[in-house]
Amino acid sequence: MTTLAWTDNLVLSQPRLDTTHQEFVELLNAYGDALDRGEDALPAFHALLTHTEQHFAMEEDWMARCGFDPQNCHAGQHKMVLDVMREALRYATELKDREPLKILRTELAGWFPQHAEMMDAALVFTMQQVGFDPTTGECREPLAVASHGCGSSSCG
Q1: Any idea where the Hemerythrin-like domain is (predicted)?
Q2: Integer Cα distance of 129 and 139 in angstroms
Q3: Is this prediction's pTM over 0.85?
Q4: Range 14-129 classified under CATH 1.20.120
Q5: Are 51 and 24 a contacting pair, CB within 8 Å?
């Protein structure tokens, strides 16, 4: 069973981010497959967590270079997701309770498309507006005033 299908709805037309997002989906599916087969899913979860940490760090670096306030809600959501993932891992390793890991599979599959379609799409839009090149890390016109929000119209 596929945990999350990669669809055109997840494509943001920013090649590096699209590749990173596709890798996230593949790792989430590999984790889900391990759960479905009844295998030890911890190695697959570790791979997903490591990727997610690097994925979010990349986005947050881009936000900083574009002029986002470090405490913006997009980065706050990243922190929340990583905290939950790390806590589920702690439950699995220290308390021998794997149930949070199983729940997290479904939660991540529901959360990710919304996050990508709203917050990441807003980041890509901002990157385009300020002329940010993710390859060089150069920003033609950083935001004049640091953005406290995520870039979406629903965030203040």
Answers
A1: 17-122
A2: 10
A3: yes
A4: yes
A5: yes
